[in-house]
Every structure is written in C-alpha cells, then in structure tokens.
C-alpha cells in the first residue's frame, strides 16, 4: 500500500509542477497584465533595495555563482567520478542524464518563450540570452537535488532531514539572488523551479522503474535516497582509527609555511633590487630578450596553451579531478588533505612572497598583458609542479602498472612546458622559475613528511581497518 501511495505522490507532484509551469508559460507568452505587474513591481523594489549597497550586491553575486554552470558542472563531475570509481554505474548515469536534461531544457525554452530580461533603474548584473525560465534556478534545483538523492544514503538518518532542508534553502537562495541582481522576474524563477521538480520526478521515477525491473525493492527517495543499498560505497571513506596526530601536523605545517616563505623572500628581494629586477643574474636578461627576438606564430600558439594549462582555472580543474579520484579509489581523507594543503599553501606562499618581493616583469613585450602580481616567483610554474607532484606521489606507490610512469612524466614535462611558455611570452625571468622550484620542492616535501598521505601502505599503517588502497587503484586502471 505504501508503494502505491509513493507512486501516486510522485505522479501528483509531477502533475502539479507541470501544470504550474504550463500556466506560467501561457501567461508569459500572452503577457498577462497581472503577472507582468507583479513581476515588474518586485524587480523594481528589489533593485532599489540591493543596488545601492556594494555589500548586498557582492553577497547576491556570490550566492548566484553557486547556481552557475561552472560550479554545477564540477559538482556533477566530482559526483559522477566518485560513484563511477566505486562501480555504481547506475547512479553515475542518473547524475549525467538528470543534469543533461537541465542543459537541454534551459536554452531551448528560453528561445521558445522569447521573454526579454528585466530593465531596472540601477543595473548591477548582466544575464545572457532570454529571461524565462531562470537557468540558474532550474539547474541548481536539478543538480543539487540529483546529488542529494544519490548521496543521501551515505548520511546517517538523523542528518538526512537537515540535508534536505539545507539543499532546499540553497536552491531558494540561488533563485532569490537572480531576482535581487535584476536579471530575472519572479515568474522566471518559479517557472524554473516547477520545471526542475517535474524533471527530477521524471528521472527519479525512471530510476525506480529500472530498480523494479531488476527485482530490487521500492525506495522512498526523500527518506533514504534512490539507491539505499549503496550506502557503504557512497560513504567518503572506509572505517579507520584516528591517530590523534592532527595537532602536531597542523603546527608543523604552520612552521613549514613560515620557513618556506622566508626562503622565498630571502631569494627574491635581492633579485628584485638588482638593476630594478632586470639584472642578468643567471641569464635573467639574456633569456627573455632572446625569446622576444625569436618569436613565431606557431610558437605563440604552443606557448599560449602552455601558459593556460598552468593558470588558476586549469590547476583548480586538475586538482578537483585528482581529489575526487583519490577519495573514491583510496577511501581515506589523508590523500585529499595532502592535496588541499599543498595547493592552498602554494597559493598563499606565492601571493605573499610576490607581494613582499615586488619584482618587475622582464623588460620585453609581455604577450599576456599586465599582471596584478610581481614576477617572482612564477605562480603558474609553482602550481603546476605542485599538482602533478601530488598526483605522482599518490599514484606511484599504489600500483605497479606501467601507467604510473605517465604521472612521473607529467610531473616533469608539464612544469617544463609551462616554464618555457611563460619565459617565451615575456612574463618571467629564469630565476622566477627557480623560485617556483624552491617553493614547490620545500613545500611539497614538508607537507608530505607531516601528513604522510601514503602511510596506509607501510608495515605499521596509521589508519586501521581500511581496505587496501593498492588494489583499488589497480581496479580503477583495469576498468
């Protein structure tokens, strides 16, 4: 009886959501005056309240980004990686199909309805394309809702209601931020939510029918998720004993950061002061001028790619992918903490030392334009060394397969490509690259020694009762 009532509730929910969306589409298309009046009145009042305050504008902008394609894409990608590595292929397909639906529905309906964006007195944001439905509101509901339904079994029962409330509040805040920024009407947001609920219900019902076809029991998605049996595989880590060494590691990392920072400043300040940063120490002047005199269109295209693969966005993408795979395959937090600590420390060391040193860029044409940071050290090179060194440190000890040497090669070749590209484009001196090598070598070595990301492979493991990480990685490679 409960099974039938659950199916009936889903059907009723889909019918209500689809009906509301259809009515809103009709009202928007015929420009129903009462709806237009409410929409424009709310848009004007919110604009008058939000636009004069830079703080309010910044807060709304930050919340809005949580519903952007860039954020949602990476959340779904990480979720798919986690479940796929742990052989939950149905859940991976559910996430991909559900998220893809939002990508299809949003632009096509915007074109079909053709509603213009709000025109407010004090514009504070710009939205591309048409207005109905709100893409941020639609995709945030779909993506966060799908992730919740997939990973809900990993939560303890007493936390599940809080997770539902939290996700619901986040979706509401994203929708409100789009209104507050003046890029959508209220009916755009409500229409997006109703469409998103309808799509989620369709995908959830399809998944439930697949479970029934395979002889599995009926689920209650909002109470236990769509695949309760996968709870053990969906939990981030396997059970293990805590060692109580966290305080020691934190203190050691803080000390290491200060010492590495001191080494960078000690190396960088003399370089910045000597001949205004463009002295010929270790060919600091000769190399940039030689590259500037031998530039070529083909080399320009090769080096711009080399420069881009070391920028913040590329490194963040590589780091997120590496962290997701490490957590899914190794099932311990230490490798992820190692990655996050290395990358965050590298970023703060680079920014802090660059601010103190203040070295000028090479006195040749800077092909990438003016930069907000100084030349020493190279942030691109340091970040590239760190992320690929972490990958090699985590992979090489955990498998004997031939492909582990690809990570070692990447840890050498990728930084070399980025370093040559940055010098070719007139953005760094050779000693800037040496400073990056110093930063990365000292910092990665110190963090590795303090966190011990591979200690589960030693004879006396630091975390007990966890599955062997070596076989996990080898199974991933085999698949």
From TrEMBL:
Keyword entries, A-Z: Membrane, Transmembrane, Transmembrane helix
Leader sequence residues: none
UniProt KW Ubl conjugation keyword: no
Keyword DNA-binding listed: no
Gene3D superfamilies: Phosphatidic acid phosphatase type 2/haloperoxidase
Transmembrane domains' residue ranges: 66-85, 92-113, 137-155, 162-186, 192-210, 249-272, 312-330, 337-358, 378-396, 403-421, 433-451
Pfam families from the UniProt entry: PAP2 (PF01569)
Domain Phosphatidic acid phosphatase type 2/haloperoxidase: 89-204, 338-448
Annotated InterPro entries: PAP2/HPO (IPR000326), PAP2/HPO_sf (IPR036938)
Name of this chain's protein: Phosphatase PAP2 family protein
Species of provenance: Dactylosporangium roseum
Lineage: Bacteria, Bacillati, Actinomycetota, Actinomycetes, Micromonosporales
């Amino acid at each position: 009886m409960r099974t039938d009532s659950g199916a009936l509730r889903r059907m009723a929910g889909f019918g209500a959501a689809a009906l509301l969306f259809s009515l809103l589409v009709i009202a928007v298309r015929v420009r129903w005056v009462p709806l237009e009046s409410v929409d424009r009145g709310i848009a004007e009042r919110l604009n008058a309240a939000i636009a004069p305050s830079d703080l309010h504008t910044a807060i709304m902008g930050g919340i809005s980004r949580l519903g952007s394609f860039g954020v949602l894409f990476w959340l779904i990608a990480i979720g798919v990686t986690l479940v796929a590595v742990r052989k939950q292929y149905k859940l991976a397909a559910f996430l991909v199909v559900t998220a893809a639906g939002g990508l299809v529905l949003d632009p096509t309906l915007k074109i079909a309805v053709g509603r213009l964006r709000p025109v407010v007195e004090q514009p504070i944001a710009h939205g591309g394309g048409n207005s109905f439905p709100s893409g941020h509101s639609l995709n945030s509901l779909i993506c966060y809702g799908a992730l919740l339904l997939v990973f809900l079994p990993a939560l303890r029962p007493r936390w599940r209601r809080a997770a539902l409330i939290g996700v619901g509040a986040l979706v509401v805040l994203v929708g409100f931020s789009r209104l507050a920024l003046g890029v959508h009407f209220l009916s755009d947001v409500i229409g997006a939510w109703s469409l998103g609920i309808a799509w989620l219900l369709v995908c959830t019902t399809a998944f439930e029918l697949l479970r029934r076809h395979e002889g599995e029991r009926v689920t209650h998605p909002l109470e236990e998720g769509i695949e309760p049996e996968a709870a053990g595989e969906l939990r981030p880590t396997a059970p293990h004993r805590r060692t109580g060494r966290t305080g020691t590691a934190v203190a050691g990392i803080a000390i290491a950061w200060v010492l590495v920072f001191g080494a960078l400043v000690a190396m960088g300040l003399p370089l910045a002061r000597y001949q205004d940063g463009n002295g010929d120490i270790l060919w600091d002047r000769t190399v940039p001028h030689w590259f500037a005199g031998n530039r070529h269109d083909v080399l320009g295209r090769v080096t711009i790619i080399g420069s881009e693969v070391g920028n913040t966005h590329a490194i963040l993408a590589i780091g997120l992918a590496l962290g997701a795979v490490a957590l899914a395959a190794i099932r311990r937090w230490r490798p992820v903490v190692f990655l996050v600590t290395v990358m965050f420390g590298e970023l703060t060391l680079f920014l802090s030392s660059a601010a103190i040193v203040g070295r000028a860029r090479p006195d040749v044409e800077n092909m990438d334009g003016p930069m907000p940071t100084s030349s020493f050290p190279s942030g691109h090179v340091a970040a590239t060394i760190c992320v690929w060194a972490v990958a090699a440190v985590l992979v090489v000890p955990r498998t004997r397969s031939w492909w582990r040497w690809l990570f070692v090669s990447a840890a050498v070749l990728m930084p070399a490509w980025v370093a040559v590209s940055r010098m070719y484009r007139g953005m760094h001196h050779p000693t800037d690259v040496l400073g990056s090598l110093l930063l990365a070598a000292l910092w990665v070595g110190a963090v590795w020694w303090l966190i011990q990301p591979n200690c589960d492979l030693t004879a006396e493991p630091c975390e007990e009762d966890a599955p062997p990480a070596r076989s996990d990685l080898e199974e991933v490679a085999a698949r």
